[in-house]
Amino acid sequence: MSFTSFFKKRPHKEENNIVVIGTPTNVNHDIHVTVDEKGLVTGLPSAWMRQIGTQITKDEQRENPLVVKQVLQYYHFSIKKGNQERPEFKHIVTERDIVEESKQIDLYTQSKDAHQSKDSLSDSDKEQKEINRCSYPVRPPRKIDGSNLIQTKNLAQNLVDLTLVENEEVEFRDKSGSSADLFGDDDVSRRRSGLTDEDYMIEIRKICNTGNPDDYYERSHKDLGSGASGLVFAATCKKTGEWVAIKDIDMTKQHKKDLLLSEIKIMKNFKHKNLVNFLDAFVVNDDHLYVVMELLDGGPLTDVVTETVMKEGQIAAVCFEVLKAIDYLHERGTIHRDIKSDNVLLGMDGTVKVTDFGFCANVIGNEQRETMVGTPYWMAPEVVTRQKYGKKVDIWSLGIMIVEMLDGEPPYLREPPLRALYLITANGRPKITRWNTLSEKLKSFIDLTLQVDVDKRATAKELLLHEFLDEKMELKTLTPLIRAAKKMLHKT
Predict the structure, then answer these.
(1) Are 415 and 484 found together in one domain?
(2) Is 268 annotated among the ligand-binding residues?
(3) Which of 21, 111, 119, 370 has its CA 20 to 30 A from that of 457?
(4) Where is the composition biased (Basic and acidic residues) (predicted)?
(5) What range defines the domain where residue 43 resides?
(6) Residues 6 or more apart from 86 whose CB is under 8 A from it?
(7) Which residues, including other chains, have CB under 8 Å from residue 50's CB and lie 6 or more apart?
(8) Is 11 part of any domain?
(9) What is the pLDDT of residues 299-323, one digit of tens each?
């Protein structure tokens, strides 16, 4: 099937110049949170207060009033932001973006949006229905029986170390980059940069492949998914025969072309064997951007952790590969912010790659919206409290992913997202069901990932030197697990 004939060229529409009126300044809607004589939290918007009664007990309110406030503030900010934005791709996040987000959360608490449902039960009910609709789906419990215990034989002697590909230094954000635009007003950023949509399109064309995608890739009839940004489909590279995922971004619906330009520049320089890599990009018929990415045929790690039982050596192997990807991102000033088994893809040979960042989000067509900025069950406590929030949130999430590999699911998965956030923030490190059965090396490794005190939590580089990773098994030992999971889930 031809790429260029798939979409008909649309006539160019001239945009009218619209006068932008700034928002009022110095407007306050203060929230004064107090604890009454009964020890209960008061002073929050009434729509928020109704949620406390259903998901946070009176005893918990008395014990942790500040945590209750922080959780509700973060939760509702995330809901509002998720409802207002339908991004075509997940933006690459830096620590500067985190600082800006923290400021926006504080401003949101004082905004009219936090209070608009204060006196309207019907509005609150509508909001709650939206929250429930967006909640993360509960996984079925993992069956643990003899049929899931897979024996492996004839292991190779050595695991080949995957080395980094050297890259030139990349300037991640300039004055017109995402820090200002990620949470700010599009038109304000546009005026500051002085560039029009057409100017950005000219720059995008310059850094994209100028050839015809038909000459490079053979499109398959297999669609991987669809969403607000368009279609994700499979294709084969004519030169190598390898499968790729091609994500179509409809440029007529892309309002942040400056961010788009910035992300392409960054992703072109991100190359690592443990990342789902950006491969190529084409502008088709002037109004569609085709982004070509790697495609792994083994599926997500989630299938393996829910359907099979992993040995410690296999857990070590996965952690080793994921840590190399995290370290690579951290060295380049990037925070993944959503490490979990769903975002670790496997090849049938046991290859392990991290996805769901930049253009590589939704490479398998899963565009179901999450409730949170990041998924709550894997979320570090400091994401809610905003204390020392930085790269080490990825290390906490890795620790929770180890719990997944041990227990088949993360802690609190059976709880609704709001209550899960409360338990994560109030309790800190979760209990691990199989703790007493684990080796001392694995216990030590988990201890370093799930430290509530960020200063005591290890870095990716430190964990890569941990003795637990010396126990890693050959990656190809994951292949029987992948095949078994596919069979159980009828994906073969």
Answers:
(1) yes
(2) no
(3) 370
(4) 112-132
(5) 34-121
(6) 228
(7) 124
(8) no
(9) 899 999 999 999 999 999 999 999 9
